[in-house]
Design goal:
The structure is a single chain. By secondary structure, the chain is mainly alpha-helical. It has one domain. It is 64% helix and 0% strand. The chain is globular and about 35 Å long. It starts with 5 loop residues before the first helix and ends with a helix. The C terminus is likely disordered.
Length: 118
């Protein structure tokens, strides 16, 4: 893997932590991710590393580019719905940064909307 910016590295760590929580609690996987969860992580990680916004990447929900396939988007949503609340317990710092990233003003979507001509 090549070097990513700080924001993308953190995003990758957050996604991995969420998938690990999900896998451990739902698939009883103690040592490493099961095959299904490893596939989700590999896909998400690949997409994060290829993000065209680089370190200025907004939270995915605020981005105008939807780079996940429908199937994988549904899978990662399921993981995030389950793991999101648990992240506060297991990874409070990553949770805080993720929350701050979601709240940041000037997201790509907002910038695109501000350029619209009335």
């Amino acid at each position: 893997m090549f070097l990513l910016g700080e924001r993308l590295e953190r995003e990758n760590r957050t996604v991995k932590a969420m998938i690990e929580i999900y896998c451990k609690k739902n698939h009883r996987s103690n040592i490493e991710l099961c095959k299904e969860c490893k596939e989700i992580y590999d896909y998400a990680s690949y997409r994060i590393t290829r993000c065209p916004h680089k370190d200025k990447k907004p939270a995915c929900t605020k981005c105008e580019i939807h780079c996940f396939s429908r199937k994988m988007k549904d899978e990662i949503k399921k993981v995030m719905r389950f793991s999101g609340p648990r992240m506060l317990i297991y990874h409070p710092i990553l949770s805080l940064f993720h929350y701050i990233d979601k709240l940041k003003e000037g997201s790509i979507k907002k910038k695109a909307n501000s350029l619209e001509i009335p």
